[in-house]
Fold this protein.
Amino acid sequence: MGSTHPLPVPARRDALRLAIGGALLLAGCGPSAGPGTEGKAPASAATSGAVPPKLQVVATFTILADLVANVGGDRVEVQPLVGPDSDAHVFSPTPAAARAIAGASLVVVNGLGFEGWIDKLIAASGYRGTVVVASEGVDVLKATPHGHAHGHDHGDVDPHAWQSLANARRYVQNIATALAAADPAHADGYHTRAAAYDARLQALDERARARFAAIPAAERRVIVGHDAFGYFARAYAIDFHSPRGFSTNSEASARDVARLVRQIRTQRIRAVFVENISDPRLVEQLARESGARIGGTLFSDALSAKDQRALTYLDLMGHNVEEVARALSPAGAVN
Ligand SMILES: [Zn+2]
């Protein structure tokens, strides 16, 4: 296979490639059902005719894949390496992942140390095309004063930049630039879709600001399983506390758990959440020991395939905003 010539791809090989990628896509990932691609037939059914081949994009995880799908529209076929409800921190690359990268015209990664496994995987795949770092240019967040007593392997940069809608707008801009460069004939379409999607991100950001502005600053304290919400916290002036570091990989010490239990009690923190990607037991233990009630699920590092509330990035952020705001609002509190 002439993998050094990713474009143009003959339609027949395109179909083969889809068959390879099918296993990943069948996991029910949301991207092709994203809001920018509504009414579109499933991608695998749409490529058999004389239509020009689509740009084959691999994104490292579902949130990125959804952003790519919204900007790419029907010009792009995107597959995530780490599927819905899965944890990219602890992903073990598979031969199928290497094959997907080898067949890609473009690879989109988050960067900021989020995908600790990606460089090795790209090298193993033989891929020599462009690697787009979607987070390039965002205002990077360093470790907060809270927590992280024990180290993890990502240094002190928080990789979860997509948890800020303002940052996601930058991601979208970077993705549009990269798609336009890879497929200049359709550059206008990429920029038009990016602008339309950007307006939706901005509208949600403004709605979130208004929602949280109505909650007294002293009430804005939340407990979650791992430090995935630093950017969300900064955007809306909310204090997130977590027994673990930026990666789900790190262990919570008994001391950190005890400290959080005390904090939940003394500060009467009502908003305690589990996450879709990680084991809920640690947060359940915190809730049990502190007497707090679990407020619900927040979506941190992945879209959900089975939970309708986070099929797309916009749904995910809208849900997180609503869930946190409700838990923090005195009127919404159950206890
Ligand atoms: Zn994470």
